[in-house]
Predict the structure.
Amino acid sequence: MGLRVMITGPTGTLGQELVRKFKRAGLPFVAASRSLERLPEGVRGLQLDYGNSLILEQAFRDVDVLFFLQPLMPGMRDEALRVIKAARASGVEFILKVSEMGASKDSPYLYQRLHGEIDDMLVHSGIPYALLKPSSYMQNFIHGYGDALLQGTLFLPEGEGRTAYVDARDVADVALEILKRPWSYEKRHLDITGERALSNAEALVLISNQIHRRISYVPITEEAAIKTWQRAGMNDFQMEVRLSLHRAIREGRTDHVSMSYQEITGRPPLSFEQFCREMKSFWIPRREGLELWP
Ligand SMILES: NC(=O)c1ccc[n+]([C@@H]2O[C@H](COP(=O)([O-])OP(=O)(O)OC[C@H]3O[C@@H](n4cnc5c(N)ncnc54)[C@H](OP(=O)(O)O)[C@@H]3O)[C@@H](O)[C@H]2O)c1
């Protein structure tokens, strides 16, 4: 019998891609989700959140390898501890955890510190593991900043900082390879990035070229960003996490380019240009009566 794999976060940016790749490869898996109705047809789903240890233990009983993804949120350390303990109690044999590039318990940036602390819990849990540490996804220009781009201007407190954006589909490629042969990657901390680092201004020129419409980047202060987020009703935790993310970019901590994707898949990563070509319909405003979006 093959490995029994559980994929968590299967409806998110990375999870969706991973589910698609597992299906395409014809590999068995179970998708553990809070929202089964959002899973694609034909996917075996299991209703699960990270809130209850006993339910987690029960769910993990039939799992050999766990793909563990967790959004950034206030109680995430406690949740992660629950997940790791339940996995150990149920005999899960390997955990591939989604972390962040630069994650460390000593990081000055909150989002990296949170991941670093949880990574450490896993490292010391005794469960064989690997850590997937992607840089920011290119898809953030769709899901995160899509509305701003449709309106023509992206305001962010990132100065002229650069990021080695990675396509979430590439991160899913790496995850798939690891989940097929987890023990070959045991204890590895894998930074996954695109082929080069881009500033926001450079990224927006590439998007603008594709859609023949100019979209501009305007660097703003943290104070200005906070005011906008407060007006939008963002809570303190979300604001602190986002500020730490933008600060890391502004302070030049996200431009590192890694060769892990190439090493693991034997191919170069998708370029930002290719991403823009394939996704351009997301940045073209919908005209009345005309369905332009995919
Ligand atoms: N976005 C990036 O650029 C990026 C880059 C590197 C690393 N990461 C890391 O990837 C992780 C996911 O971040 P993301 O922004 O990419 O998230 P996302 O795509 O929006 O996915 C999050 C998924 O987590 C699941 N989930 C489980 N418990 C949840 C809860 N209590 N609240 C909300 N969702 C819950 C949800 O799936 P179900 O509804 O199916 O349960 C959701 O679809 C984070 O740890 C982040 O630090 C993100």
Notes: The radius of gyration is 19 Å. The CA atoms of residues 230 and 236 lie 9 Å apart. Confidence is low (pLDDT under 50) at residues 288-294.
